[in-house]
């Protein structure tokens, strides 16, 4: 290979050294690679970094969280700061709120910073502590009418719906968090409000054989009963029978009847009731 002045200037010092050693220039080789389709386009391998999990709280200070279909107001959604995560690093312009099963996403109309709560780190659903922790939280406002139309909430009255917040911090790294909102219709004095009791998500297997786990919510202070029934309507096991405040709760059934003995595998039904309404989930018990 003949190396004159123009060649050296064109290739640069590193390329010259590589050329003398007979080693291909890795940068030049990368530029010249093409994809398998033969289209002649440079092929670059893409690396995607998973988003950083953040704690969000819909309607900070309340649990469960309500979204009234008739409201013309906005609903606050906060990203809670922690010692490990400074919300000042978030780019609010990238924030979007979405729902699984809905194609659209909503952007906040405004945002501010305030200490509105302390995050509870655990498995969802959890109620975050409404007391401040001395750390700033990013509090955004989402118009309820936009959420209803974009996320398809109009037909989900009485349902506990998980909403997902995604965005980026100023370095470009993604963030993601979720929280539940209970969709409700009618004014606070209507009978519909009394129906806000039910299950959150599906029945899940527990850690033991034949064990099932439930998450459920109640919107009013009332006496709550939660029992498992067989297909004939007979109570198999009472899990809860007590006065409860509004919130999200958990219960576990280990496949044991009232007599303390294991019940046969098969179909059962879990039902939660307050004084005026109830909700039911089907259970398939299989050890």
Description of the structure:
26% of the residues are buried. It contains three helices and 18 strands. A hairpin with a 4-residue loop joins strand 17 (266-273) and strand 18. The longest helix is centred in the N-terminal third of the chain and has 17 residues, at 5-21. It folds into three domains: 1-44, no CATH class; 52-184, Immunoglobulin-like (Sandwich), CATH 2.60.40; 196-285, Immunoglobulin-like, CATH 2.60.40. The chain starts with a helix and ends with a strand. The protein has helices at residues 5-21, 26-32, 144-151; strands at 52-53, 55-58, 66-68, 74-80, 90-98, 105-106, 110-114, 137-143, 160-169, 174-184, 197-199, 204-205, 212-218, 222-229, 235-244, 247-253, 266-273, 278-285. Strands 1, 3, 5, 6, 9 and 10 form a six-stranded mixed β-sheet that branches. The chain is mainly β and 287 residues long.
Q: What is the H-and-E element order?
A: HHEEEEEEEEHEEEEEEEEEE
- Helical fraction equals 10-25%
CATH architecture of the largest domain: Sandwich
CATH T-level topology of the largest domain: Immunoglobulin-like
CATH class call of the largest domain: Mainly Beta
Main sheet summary:
6 strands, mixed
Entry keywords:
single chain, 287 residues, mainly beta, Immunoglobulin-like, 3 domains, 4-stranded antiparallel sheet, 3 helices, 18 strands, elongated, disordered N terminus
């Amino acid at each position: 290979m003949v190396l004159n002045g123009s060649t050296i200037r064109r290739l640069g010092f590193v390329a010259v050294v590589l050329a003398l050693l007979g080693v291909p220039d890795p940068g030049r080789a990368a530029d010249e690679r093409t994809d398998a389709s033969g289209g002649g386009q440079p092929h670059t391998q893409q690396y995607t970094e998973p988003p950083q999990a953040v704690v969000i709280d819909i309607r900070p200070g309340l649990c469960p969280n309500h979204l009234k279909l008739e409201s013309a107001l906005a609903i606050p959604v906060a990203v809670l700061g922690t010692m490990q995560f400074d919300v000042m690093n978030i780019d609010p312009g990238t924030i979007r709120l979405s729902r699984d099963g809905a194609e659209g996403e909503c952007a906040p109309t405004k945002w501010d910073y305030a200490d509105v709560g302390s995050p509870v780190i655990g498995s969802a659903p959890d109620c975050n502590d409404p007391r401040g922790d001395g750390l700033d939280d990013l509090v955004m406002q989402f118009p309820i009418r936009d959420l209803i139309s974009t996320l398809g909430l109009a037909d989900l009255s009485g349902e506990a719906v998980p909403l997902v917040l995604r965005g980026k911090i100023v370095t470009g790294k993604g963030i993601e968090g979720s929280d539940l909102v209970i969709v409700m219709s009618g004014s606070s004095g209507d009978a519909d409000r009394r129906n806000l009791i039910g299950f959150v998500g599906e029945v899940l297997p527990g850690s033991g054989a034949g064990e099932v786990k439930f998450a459920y919510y109640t919107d009013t202070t009332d006496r709550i009963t939660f029992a498992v029934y067989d297909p004939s309507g007979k109570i198999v096991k009472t899990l809860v029978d007590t006065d409860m405040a509004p919130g999200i709760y958990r219960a576990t059934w280990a496949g044991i009847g009232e007599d303390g003995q294991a019940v046969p595998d098969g179909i059962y039904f879990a039902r939660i009731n307050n004084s005026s309404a109830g909700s039911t989930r089907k259970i398939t018990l299989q050890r």
